[in-house]
Amino acid sequence: MKKRKLGLRGPEVSALGFGCMRLPVISDRINRPAASAMLLEAIESGVNYIDTAFLYHNGESETFIADTVTGSRRDKVIIADKMPSWLIEKPSDLDKYFNIQRRKLKSEIIDVYLIHGLNSARWKKMQETGVLDWFSHKKESGEISYTGFSFHDGYECFENIIDAWDWDVCQIQYNFMNVDYQAGIRGLKKAYEQGIGVIVMEPLFGGKLVRAPRAVKDVWMKSVHPEWTPAERALRWLWDQKEVGMVLSGMSSMEHVKENTIIASDAESGAFTTQEKLLFDDAREAYQSLKVISCTACDYCKPCPQGVDIPWNFNLYNRAVMYENLEASRKSYEWMCTSYKIGVSDTDKRGIHCISCGDCLSRCPQNLEIARLMPEVAAVLAGERGLAG
């Protein structure tokens, strides 16, 4: 397994990290025999970075790792955990959840501790709790080895956060379809220039890039490696960039583990030719041509009186068509409701709350019939009808 230095201050890590967010389950509980076999296989193949969070698998992910990675194996790996930022209301909550997580991990030290899911609102609240001074104390005491954050907001917010502290690492969503999304390629390069190790999540866009529609397959056939699967191509695109410190994959089967570790043992930065890189631009355009609702996510339609995130709902519908993956869009739609109920999101932004009031119509530069489209989109995403309905 190839290794990379995670920024100037971070550890040396395997090119591939194991994300314990999408482990195989039985009746909503981790299928421990199957998941343990996967995790141990990954470690034996050279993976030395394991990622978890307070929220994953309803709180079971941390204890699963502690029970599985024991003895000499524990010395071989770096375990990263994440502070549940949405639950932090006051300074004493920092220690409260940190100590809960240490007990679940059965460790006095957390190797890498990240603030989970930062956006502008959460960042403001975290600053008010004195989290940066708290981080300084925990690093000085040796209770945390490396500090960081995972991120879900726009570039300006990302820039503000990384300029506020000498972070060791950051974690961003990034793949060849998301070069200008959230932190994007600008955030990747800025973090790298400041010596902050960049961990990439959603390398396959939540599984949406594991298969390609006909228009995209035609693009890949022009490659010097037409035998590569769409997933392999997407992963190699990331590892080709020197700014990417590590690619984190939420693997859910032994097949994923074996395929990804083989690719990670071969891929390296600077391997693509200019022509090969340009094919990813062509593939991106091919995907975009499949959109059926011409929403540009300009946000002029917002705010909606009912709290509906109109571009987000339309984006989920378009993704279902573009990536031929309705199931993934429905899961994201359902997650918006779940995350609101448990306090991860501030509002329930699903299209089901649209009352077709027409307040947004005059503000849409694309002249979309939002009041007509949204109920149809919501019905598809809620599983009440199919895409052809």
How would you describe this structure to a colleague?
With 389 residues, the protein is α/β, with parallel strands linked by helices. It has two domains: 3-272, TIM Barrel (Alpha-Beta Barrel), CATH 3.20.20; 310-381, no CATH class. It contains 15 helices and twelve strands. The protein has helices at residues 32-44, 60-68, 72-76, 92-105, 120-128, 131-141, 155-162, 184-193, 214-220, 230-239, 254-264, 274-288, 310-322, 326-341, 370-381, and strands at 3-5, 12-14, 16-19, 25-26, 29-30, 49-51, 78-83, 110-118, 144-151, 169-173, 197-201, 246-249. The strands form three sheets. It has an eight-stranded parallel barrel, surrounded by six helices. A two-stranded antiparallel sheet has the order 1-2. Strands 4-5 form a two-stranded antiparallel ribbon. Helix 9 packs antiparallel against helix 12 and helix 13 (310-322) runs antiparallel to helix 14. The longest helix is centred in the C-terminal third of the chain and has 16 residues, at 326-341.
Total strands: 12
Number of helical regions? 15
Mean pLDDT: 95
SSE run? EEEEEHEHHEHEHHEHEHEHHEHHHHH
CATH class of the largest domain: Alpha Beta
Largest sheet: 8 strands, parallel, barrel
| Cα separation of the termini | 47 Å
Q: Which superfamily, in CATH terms, is the homologous superfamily of the largest domain? A: NADP-dependent oxidoreductase domain
Derived structural class:
alpha/beta
Oligomer: single chain
How many domains make up the 3D coordinates? 2
CA-based shape: globular
Strand coverage percent: 5-15%
Q: Please identify, by name, the CATH architecture of the largest domain.
A: Alpha-Beta Barrel
Order of the strands making up the biggest sheet:
3-6-7-8-9-10-11-12
The name of the CATH topology of the largest domain is TIM Barrel
Radius of gyration: 21 Å
Query: Helical proportion?
Result: 40-55%
Unreliable spans: none
